[in-house]
Specification:
The structure is a homotetramer. Chain A is of the alpha/beta class and about 300 residues long. Helices cover about 30% and strands about 30% of the residues of chain A. The first copy, chain A, has three domains: about 1-85 and about 175-185, Periplasmic binding protein-like II (D-Maltodextrin-Binding Protein, domain 2, 3-Layer(aba) Sandwich); about 90-165, Periplasmic binding protein-like II (D-Maltodextrin-Binding Protein, domain 2); about 185-308, Alpha-Beta Plaits. The interface of B and C includes residues 55, 107 and 226 of B.
Chain lengths: ~300, ~300, ~300, ~300
């Protein structure tokens, strides 16, 4: 089997690149300039799959990914991977910290080292670029003295930068979650430790709709591990909900929850079932196992067949 | 086709007899002395069907009927009929009201004329017998002067009694509901104005269980027209619930509610789906019609078939 | 202090009498012929308090008690007591079981020995009288041979009857619960193991109302130990609910639940808070203790006082 | 009274500046470079109040505002204003559209004209700066030919730019909502058309917590006009919820909802009650008016005072 072609949010040496390498599959990585381009490359068949960030424990959902996936009709998530967030401050050649006059980084990275910067480099202006790898590249290619990048170690190394400070993230437990995207296909088989990602659009004129939506999960004993509201891009206050639910499309309880959601929502977008990165087994409450559903179905079929 | 043999709560000339005659079918009515005997006659095949009272707007559920049906594994309800409650006070020959010294009636009838008796015959002792028809019979066959029966007009007439007072029920809108019972068989076809009768046993150690049970109906847009708690005959505070739900076993929303109940209850006894006596069409909320369920099922099947 | 005058559902030697004696207070017991008369004696001041049965583990709620209390505006329950149900079969003088030709008892007692009778005295007619004590008395005063009473041991002994069979109740764990009724007064102080009895009338035209009612308790972590539907005596399908809720009128969570019920129900009748007979401590869920309510109230008051 | 000093998200000629001018009060506007600086200026007393964007109908919540407000213990929202989003494409001097080689704008503006740009300026690189006003300024001060800013009309005019295209937002109904922030103070008096903004932190280990939180509002008939999940900046999947609820801190139903939230949440941050920009009167469901709460409180107080 030839290597799978994998798109990722580039350029080379981004966190996404690092996450992709951690997948441990034989991959042929292809960087793309932004999330939309990465996703489009999957859709058009330029690559077989792609890895993009979807959630960050400090900054929250990655809007571009959430919104492009929500709009996609022909893509699914088939896997996830998480990566601890760890930043370095890196310069072109050896520079004293006090000589740093300008910082270049990605806005999300900026947000995660803000505390460290305000203590160690107060008042130093920060310029935002499209990726932390791009920041490293920009610093490497610019001879102006006193410029520093906030980036992943891999990016500093790739670009031959000197690391002035390591582990500068404000929150040492910060993680980023990435998802593997492919064209629509059957999900990986259930493992008992799965997630299902959905985008749920409520009927506009129905207050209490979110309560009803959540009840579709709760009443079947399904936990949600993530819920994000996203604007539907129409009027203020019109939202859809991006959720990760514990369990697999093939699970009976998930099936019934999906049926219920389909009936009460304006639209339900199924974005895939896949194994959880943390491998934590799904909780199965009393009465919600596949066998419980099968037993109840058999009972109902018998009732309905009475006298027939 | 030969006439259907119908058992009923006798003796002749009871309200149940009167209700049975109102069915308008060609029937061969057979009186039985009590509810249990009537029900057993169906079970054993002595009669094809039976009519028994199940609910009274003043006294509430008829315990004997509710409990014997709840215990039955081989019987179903296939229809219902309601009858206004109307009592007369009747004596053997012409007697002045002031000369009435003793009243004979059924306890449930007593309860429904209590106010009238306390005003018009204060202090006159009341003896309870097994039926209002039996009360009329007892008065007719006893020469002791001053005895009066509280019974249906039909019973007074059948027994040749004189009616001293008519319309003596405290509540003029009082009604009794009767149900047709047969051995287990397919229900009559859905009419869009149906009821389904169930007995629901909760798991003993689960507080909030009733809330969960009710939610199985509410979340599918199913109204309940009757809910009665009945002791399970074990310990104090252990209940089952006898309910009438709007809709038919064949309705998709009822099917899903039954599946949910089956999974959360200790036991679900299905006692039949049948047309409502009042003919009021079942409310069908948005997203709960058979077509909505079918559309959602097709959608889910397509999702599950992806890539297969 | 003079002895308290206690009315009870008589005559002497009933189970209620036996339960009254078990109260262990110095009482002056006064029998009354029926529940209504007993309750009225409290209302009119003829007695200080009364004991009446309210719930039986086999037959369910005692309708007369439930309905008369629901209608009362001036009475409260101040205590409860439970008693195992144990019946004997007793005759006037020594009689062989096979010679028993007629049985006299109260309908509720009949219901609880039905199984035993159908096995041991099949086909023997049963006459219903107003109490099991009355049945014993009737048998004692009637020289017709072959008559037997189903009654409490105390009633057999009081009336000089011979006990043919003991422990004939079908369910050996059967219990009856009795309540102490007084004119409206402050409840006994909270003990941490209390009950509050309420009657809740829903607005007629509001489906899902029971769900809302139950949620008022559930959302404050209050368990219900009893729920009985009772007809409102108007039209079929119009119910009120008689409930026992864990906790005391003085508990903050009960207070807030009562406020919620008052706002959503057509009517809420408070029938008293009193110590549980079984002494089981009320469950207090996280966030529902009096201290939690007090802390939240103080927080809200501070918010509302901001800048004032 | 001297003019109120108002901070805003600058520089001059931003949408926020335009929104501030629309307030119609006599204000002394002071621009700040970012949301944090703007908010800090209020906290430190440098300005009396500030206006910052909080929500955009296309891009969703403004994370910086949501997160800084959620962290604030000493600030409240006292008002809101909404503004239609309308962008122009502007250049230094007259330039043909085909001659545009570089675009400068704010990332959120970029997101809202993405469709227009991909059709009209495909492949032209976009550089992100901190504000649309900054983009206009940057274009005005840079002589490199072919540079264009996507900005508000006010910014183009202030900087002497030429408008190449107007109304280029992809969604013509797009709006941005801004909030007025002050140091903690009493809220404006209730108007009957109010909002209350809260940040709700759930207990980490409690699945179904969001359902419980939403129920605190729903059970008191309170609609939510906005709900946003925000990461708590600890671990993946740990969220708090930023919500706007219909009604005022002084409303009884809001008070009871706040009490309930305080008892079930890890933390409740009250961020102010203020009149709605759209003036739409709050829905008041049956049983949830202040008078209903007062009536219920009086009833409960009477019950609790019984016999005292």
């Amino acid at each position: 089997m030839p290597p799978i072609t994998y798109g990722y949010l580039g350029p080379e040496a981004t966190f996404t690149h690092q996450a992709l390498l951690s997948l441990g599959e034989i991959v042929d990585p292809v960087p793309f300039p932004d999330v939309l381009a990465t996703i489009d490359a999957v859709r058009s068949g330029v690559v077989d799959a792609a890895l993009v960030p979807i959630e960050n424990s400090v900054e929250g959902g990655v809007s571009a990914t959430l919104d492009h996936l929500a709009a996609a009709q022909d893509l699914v998530i088939t896997g996830e991977v998480t990566l601890p967030v760890a930043f370095v401050l890196a310069t072109r050649g050896e520079v004293a910290l006090t000589a740093v006059r300008a910082i270049v980084t990605h806005p999300m990275a900026d947000a995660q080292v803000r505390g460290w910067l305000s203590v160690n480099l107060p008042g130093v202006p920060v310029t935002h670029v499209g990726s932390t790898a791009g920041a490293a590249e920009a610093v490497a290619s610019d001879e102006t003295p006193g410029r520093a990048a906030v980036c992943a170690r891999i990016a500093a190394e790739t670009n031959g930068l000197t690391i002035l400070a390591d582990g500068i993230a404000d929150n040492e437990q910060a993680e980023t979650r990435f998802v593997v995207i492919t064209r629509t296909t059957a999900p990986p088989a259930p493992t008992g430790a799965d997630k299902t990602t959905l985008v749920l659009f409520q009927h506009a004129d129905h207050s209490g709709a979110l309560l009803e939506i959540l009840d579709q999960f709760a009443s079947r004993g399904i936990n949600l591990t993530r819920i994000e509201s996203r604007p539907t891009k129409t009027t203020l206050g019109s939202y859809c909900f991006s959720v990760d639910a514990e369990g697999h499309l093939a699970d009976a309880r998930m099936g019934e929850a999906l049926l219920g959601l389909r009936r009460i929502c304006k639209e339900v977008r199924y974005l895939g079932s896949y194994p959880r990165a943390d491998g934590v087994a799904n909780e199965v409450r009393v009465g919600t196992a596949n066998a419980d559903f099968a037993e109840a179905e058999a009972w109902l079929a018998a009732l309905r067949g009475l006298g027939a």
